[in-house]
Specification:
6 helices; about 150 residues; elongated
Length: about 150
């Protein structure tokens, strides 16, 4: 299941990188978050291994949609805040997620059960994606205001 996820995820990185160069990165990340969260919700209803493979492939595609866009945003921020600092922060966030995610999921599966764990993951993903969208919208609004002020001088 993990191999299918990784294979599909890696195969679509280059085309999704081109998308990130052409379209609004925030929109790609938000779509990715909602699609991935929907797939986690679908995991509650999996009945057989074939369905699990299909959902895993879908999660690979949906997750890959955000990765080049996230990296591009980090590179843009790095120009202002220091490339090493921003990349270090991004790497730390991914590492923390890879470390804490399985531990927290294990604890929650003991409390909620496996099916509700996927529902929890979907809700957490939707909430996180919504927070990201809001923060990015606020940032874009500030950037537009700053640009307008600079042009009016």
């Amino acid at each position: 299941v993990i191999a299918v996820y990784m294979l599909v995820n890696s195969l679509v990185q280059v085309p999704f990188g081109r998308l990130a160069d052409r379209y609004r990165k925030r929109v790609l990340i938000v779509w990715s978050g909602f699609l991935t969260s929907s797939a986690f919700a679908a995991l509650m209803f999996i009945q057989n291994f074939g369905e699990l493979i299909l959902v895993s492939a879908f999660v690979g595609i949906a997750g890959a949609l955000a990765q080049p866009a996230l990296s591009a945003i980090a590179a843009e921020e790095g120009k202002q805040c220091g490339m090493g600092a921003v990349m270090g922060l991004l790497s730390m966030a991914f590492s923390l997620g890879m470390m804490l995610g399985p531990v927290l999921a294990g604890l929650l599966s003991e409390i909620l059960g496996l099916r509700l764990l996927f529902c929890f993951g979907a809700v957490a993903g939707i909430l996180g994606t919504g927070m990201f969208a809001r923060l990015m919208s606020e940032r874009e609004a500030r950037d537009v205001t700053a640009t307008e002020k600079a042009q009016n001088r």
